[in-house]
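Our consortium's second objective concerns turning raw sequence data into structural hypotheses that experimental partners can test. To show how far this objective has progressed, the report includes one record in full. It was chosen at random from the queue rather than selected for favorable results. The single chain below, 307 residues long, was entered without modification.
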Amino acid sequence: MNRRTSKTTCGSFLPAFIVMLFSATIVRSEVISFNFHATSVNNQRIFGEFGVEPVGNWINSSEDMVEDLQNSEGNTTTVDMTRSGGARSGSFSGAPLNGSPMKAGLQFFAASSPPFTLSQIPYANYKVIVYLTGFNGNNASLVSDGNSTYYWDPKAFSSILTETIQTTYEEGTDAVKSNYAVFGSDTAPLTESSITISFGLAPGASGGGGIGGFQIVSLPDPPTTVKPEVKVVSYDSISSLLSLTWSSVPGQAYAVKASTDLSNWELEVATSIEANEDSDKTTEEIDLSGVPELGDQKKLYFRVERL
């Protein structure tokens, strides 16, 4: 049988396979992870990846001030962490907490405790994840950024992460057992260049609690950001060349990914594609014969991502 050359626009049938196009904006977050420890023993330190944002390069420190915090990629940022004098460091019980930010941290035993401040934050939009800890016998505590306040009871014997979203508290009751709270979100990000985190016992509570650490996570630009929209697609089955044209922004970089089932988008067929500087559209020609993972698939799905 002779092979034929065929071309198509989005949605049409191709003799070799069906091509379906999607677009997506993927913004790789920058993450700074900080672990308060009382001593430098290994079980109070974090090695490798951990967290709500599972990244490595955690900063393990018991200092009152640390400047120019590094992010998870090892790059220095402008962020400074300062904790007010008098904040007490301590460790907490439970071997399951070893190697997590809940193993040690800033202890408190009263309704208020010296806070810590993050300053010179360079991100236009971000969120802060605060890790919460304490002994099993401790009861309700609170953590606040001055705008939102969350309550929790220590989750002393598990490092499985559970978020508190409890924003009200009735004196004399238990709070939900949790070990982290989040300030800021994709839809309502934090935007100030500094944030102060305060914490202490909930009204009427006794015992104590602890703050184990934090993560600062940069968030995408507001929704007004232009997303790549695929305009034209053609495929030459003889040369195995796929040509895509999509809306783009000068100065941006893009990647094209493929999937056979719309679930797994790990296969990158082109990356670091620089946008056309002289137009609002970019065209890229991709040789699919060099992508053996695609095999003899009858259906393929592609999407363009903004890096």
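The partners drew two points from this record. The longest strand covers residues 209-218. Residues 18-26+223-306 form a domain with the Immunoglobulin-like fold (CATH 2.60.40). Both points have been shared with the crystallography group to help prioritize constructs.
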